[in-house]
Amino acid sequence: MIQNVASDVQAFSSNVFLVTGEINALIDAGANFDVVSQIQEHTEQIDRLYLTHTHVDHVKNIPSVRDAFDVETWGYDTTHDIVDHAIQDEESIPIGDERYISLHTPGHKPDHLCFYAANIGICFAGDLIFANGSFGRTDLEGGNRKTLIQSIDRIAGTVTDNLTAIYSGHGPAITTDPKENIDMAAQAARM
């Protein structure tokens, strides 16, 4: 089961996805709200904390999640002090009851990852692609529009026709025509 435990948060934060199953995983930790109590409404245990990237709105709550659940953090850039374990490009990682492929997708930030499970048609896109063809900012440190376009194109070329949902770092999940939203984001980023 996938739940956005930050869905009602009004503070500056990313979405925070709790995926329960064989491996209870948190995708991003968010910022500026009591994420621990939100998680505890659904589970007593977190096995993995995965990061799409290390912008503050995605990671500020990590200390409280670590303290409450004694969990380590997986991300792309182990030189960052909050990343305990590296995730390589195209590595298979357990989330819930499925295996996801990690895709290194820089452009918004150099350490950006997406997680994709082709067999169930789900992609966690972080701040790469948003609903209605929107895409991640490239005006922050480490951002690069050309690289972002290449990353969006990579996702477009990787996902299959059975893609049913894209869970983005901000805003609603994309559950209607997710492949079309990827194409729209690629077009918009090129403008």
Automatic annotation (TrEMBL):
<keyword id="KW-0862">Zinc</keyword>
<protein>
    <submittedName>
        <fullName>Beta-lactamase domain protein</fullName>
    </submittedName>
</protein>
<dbReference type="InterPro" id="IPR036866">
    <property type="entry name" value="RibonucZ/Hydroxyglut_hydro"/>
</dbReference>
<dbReference type="GO" id="GO:0016787">
    <property type="term" value="F:hydrolase activity"/>
</dbReference>
<keyword id="KW-0378">Hydrolase</keyword>
<feature type="domain" description="Metallo-beta-lactamase">
    <location>
        <begin position="13"/>
        <end position="170"/>
    </location>
</feature>
<dbReference type="InterPro" id="IPR001279">
    <property type="entry name" value="Metallo-B-lactamas"/>
</dbReference>
<dbReference type="InterPro" id="IPR051453">
    <property type="entry name" value="MBL_Glyoxalase_II"/>
</dbReference>
<keyword id="KW-0479">Metal-binding</keyword>
<dbReference type="GO" id="GO:0046872">
    <property type="term" value="F:metal ion binding"/>
</dbReference>
<dbReference type="Pfam" id="PF00753">
    <property type="entry name" value="Lactamase_B"/>
</dbReference>
